[in-house]
Amino acid sequence: MARDTDSELYRYPQRLRETLDHLPQAPGVYFFWAAESKVPLYIGKSVNIRSRVFSHLRTVNEARLLRQTDKITFTETAGDIGAQLLEATLIKQLIPLHNKQLRKQRALFSLHWDETKIDIVSSREKNFALTPELYGLYRNKRAAMEFIRNLADEHQLCLATLGIEAQRRGQGCFRSMLGKCRGVCQGKESIVTHHSRAKDALATWQIKMWPYPGRVAIHEQREGFNDYHIIDHWRYINTVNNLTTLPPAATENSFDGDSYRILCRALFNEKIDVITLE
């Protein structure tokens, strides 16, 4: 008897041909829907909706999704930034069955360095957009702890000196006995040198503080589209067509890691039109 696998059951979804005809070669977000469903099966984004959707149809590993799909719809955007922000927002709001990433996180964690030790802090405790010396974004404390332990192993840092582990007075840390610490806890390395090495090791993962005094609008436009994405301390608020009527400023301490990654890439690595609002 033939084995019931996705590759064996995969067939090009002929019933979707009609729904594919109207897909644009433009940036935006697209939705896979099951019959009579009020929540999409899958949400994706692309700078070319038509090309991206057709790539799904040629992917054997997505046969299960395609068998469940009855129609495909889309929402165009002015550009790629808007598509990324809209996709991340809708996935968190609607929680589609086949989207495994970009799910809503109640809180994020980071490593806070105060020049003497490292603490694991929550986005509920500190405003990550305004707090200096934060390194990395983690889903939970366990992930943050695993990261700093691996970093210490790689750079021979002392977890006791960093405040992560306890140390007996007058004795070196446990890792120094294993040759995994250069011995700052035994006086073999100065605190200044150790902390300088620790900061250098962490530098790649530093969270950028919000670089503006308040809200900004990122402007994207193409023929027929004129979008202003309102951003408040790395938090995506919404998208408007003009700046005459703006939503109120955010009052809650809310930091979204997905929006941060999208916007950080855009603001620091791309030539985009940024308008300060206040």
Give a summary of the structure in a few sentences.
This protein is an alpha+beta fold. The protein has three domains: 6-94, 3-Layer(aba) Sandwich (GIY-YIG endonuclease), CATH 3.40.1440.10; 109-205, no CATH class; 216-276, no CATH class. 29% of the residues lie in helices and 21% in strands.
Explain what you see.
The strands form 3 sheets. Strands 9-8-7-10 form a 4-stranded antiparallel β-sheet. The chain has a 3-stranded antiparallel β-sheet with strand order 2-1-3. It starts with 5 loop residues before the first helix and ends with a strand. It has 9 helices and 10 strands. The protein is α+β, with helices and mostly antiparallel strands and 278 residues long. It folds into 3 domains: 89 residues, GIY-YIG endonuclease; 97 residues, no CATH class; 61 residues, no CATH class. A hairpin with a 2-residue loop joins strand 7 and strand 8. 29% of the residues lie in helices and 21% in strands.
Number of strands: 10
User: What proportion of the residues form beta strands (DSSP E)?
Assistant: 15-25%
Number of domains: 3
Helix content: 25-40%
Largest sheet: 4 strands, antiparallel
The assigned structural class equals alpha+beta
Spatial separation of the terminal alpha carbons: 68 Å
Q: Topology as H/E string?
A: HHEEHHEHEEEHHHEEEHE
Shape: elongated
Total of DSSP H or I helical runs spanning 4+ residues: 9
Q: How would you state the average pLDDT, rounded?
A: 87
Q: Which residue ranges are poorly predicted, with pLDDT under 50 across at least 5 consecutive positions?
A: none
As a whole number of angstroms, the C-alpha radius of gyration is 24 Å
Record the strand order, biggest sheet.
9-8-7-10
Domain GIY-YIG: 25-100
Keywords: DNA damage, DNA excision, DNA repair, Endonuclease, Excision nuclease, Hydrolase, Nuclease, SOS response
Protein name: Excinuclease cho
InterPro entries: GIY-YIG_endonuc, GIY-YIG_endonuc_sf, GIY-YIG_UvrC_Cho, UvrABC_protein_C
